[in-house]
Specification:
It is a single chain. The radius of gyration is 19 Å and the shape is globular. Strands 2-3-1-4-5-6 form a six-stranded parallel sheet, with helices on both faces. The longest helix is centred in the C-terminal third of the chain and has 20 residues, at about 170-190. Mean pLDDT is about 90; it is low at about 155-160. The protein has helices spanning about 15-20, 35-50, 80-100, 120-135, 155-160, 170-190, 195-200, 235-250, and strands at about 25-30, 55-60, 70-75, 100-105, 140-145, 195, 210-215, 215-220. α4 links the parallel β4 (about 100-105) and β5 (about 140-145). The chain is of the alpha/beta class.
């Protein structure tokens, strides 16, 4: 009889056998500055949960991809998401793709602005992921939604809305990120693992969501209590995202 896979919803629920299995995984994570926030959060969690036996190594070298290693590195340039996809593919081609068990690429909030053609960007991402999947059929791809920033609703934005302005620059960047994230969820939810950093960042401690509304549509933004500067994650925010990342890794088959 086929056994049903157990999915753990909390780090406290993960048994020793699952932690042991994770300690043999080989993982690569390409990112930029918010990614470093997340990795700091993983280090925070490792102090709290000594059963997380992963060695964090900042590297792109395939020779460092060994059992129990969570490898990570910068990829590409901020504001140029295509360069991040280029370098992620290049890192995989240099040997990481055939050695790692799982790999993830995360864009940064600065990669998507009010001027971004999110449909075109997502189509490019999807095409590249399909190519990677064909090239490395044993590699588990992990997706990240795009991080959000704080959206400040002020008397100026209120006045612009009352006046019926369609383009409000204070809102546009997060609107594009929300639109991209919906495309990613629609394509991969239920198919591939997703670290929904945008959902985590916008969910307040009481479970409600940090949001704003434009033309009757609700969009989500970064909860101010999770950030130091409106975009990067503070100790509280980074730990929340890191917890979901580690939980996802522990749930990988």
């Amino acid at each position: 009889m086929e056994q049903k896979k157990v999915t753990y919803s909390s780090l406290k629920d993960i048994p020793d056998a699952a932690w042991e299995k994770l300690s043999h995984k080989k993982i690569y994570f390409g990112h930029q500055s918010v990614g470093f926030n997340i990795m700091d959060g993983v280090k925070d969690l490792m102090k709290e949960y000594p059963q997380i036996k992963l060695k964090i190594v900042e590297t792109k070298d395939s020779g460092d991809i060994k059992p129990g290693v969570l490898a990570h590195s910068r990829v590409g340039k901020n504001t140029e998401p295509e360069t991040k996809m280029d370098e992620f593919e290049n890192v995989l081609e240099q040997g990481v793709g055939s050695k790692a068990d799982a790999a993830a690429l995360k864009f940064c909030y600065v990669d998507m602005t009010g001027k971004t053609d999110v449909a075109k960007l997502f189509d490019d991402y999807k095409r590249r992921i399909e190519n990677i999947r064909k090239e490395y059929p044993d590699l588990q791809i992990i997706h990240f939604t795009d991080p959000l920033t704080v959206t400040n609703k002020t008397w100026k934005t209120w006045l612009k809305q009352v006046m019926g302005k369609k383009e409000i620059w204070e809102f546009n960047d997060n609107i594009r990120r929300n639109q991209y994230n919906e495309l990613l969820r629609k394509e991969y939810k239920g198919k591939d693992p997703i670290v929904d950093i945008a959902e985590i960042e916008s969910t307040k401690p009481d479970g409600s969501r940090q949001s704003f509304e434009v033309d009757g549509v609700t969009y989500y933004s970064l909860y101010p209590g999770y950030t130091m500067d409106g975009g990067h994650l503070n100790e509280i925010g980074r730990k929340k995202v890191a917890e979901q990342f580690i939980l996802l890794l522990a749930n990988l088959s």
